[in-house]
């Protein structure tokens, strides 16, 4: 079962896979290899790794990319895996018949995997400017400090230096 979530409507897109039949430890060794990499590099790594956990993770990355391109209009070349988590989910328990009428418990571990893709074409200044306009400040250059009474001004003419206005 694959569930798709979209959290930050400006730069991030989520994909969530629940109740995947493998232990979280086995999925983590694959997730640790792809965290922080670009989409194209991730697809190559997942196709060439010999582990069984690669296929469901590959499906999740592909699903998150489809969400990003269809819902948000992002380009696949600008996507980076910013966050990838594996959490332990429910355990399926069965009984296996053994000798002399006894039973032996079998535990099938499941996990849930979260893949977060971030668009790196939108740089941080544009993202902060969008935040200021959403909050209604409309002055991205002026930043007030909470501890002090003076104001800090962003000087755009001298290579981005900061100076205090008292």
UniProtKB/TrEMBL annotation:
SUPFAM superfamilies on file: Ribosomal protein L22
Location within or outside the cell: Plastid, Chloroplast
One Pfam family this sequence matches: Ribosomal_L22
Superkingdom, taxonomy of origin: Eukaryota
GO molecular function, one term: structural constituent of ribosome
Sorted UniProt keywords: Chloroplast, Plastid, Ribonucleoprotein, Ribosomal protein, RNA-binding, rRNA-binding
BP GO annotations: translation
GO CC field: chloroplast; large ribosomal subunit
Alphabetized InterPro entries for the sequence: Ribosomal_uL22, Ribosomal_uL22_bac/chlpt-type, Ribosomal_uL22_bac/org-type, Ribosomal_uL22_sf
Membrane-spanning residues: none
Family: Belongs to the universal ribosomal protein uL22 family.
UniProt function note: This protein binds specifically to 23S rRNA.
Subunit structure: Part of the 50S ribosomal subunit.
Name by which UniProt lists this protein: Large ribosomal subunit protein uL22c
Gene: rpl22
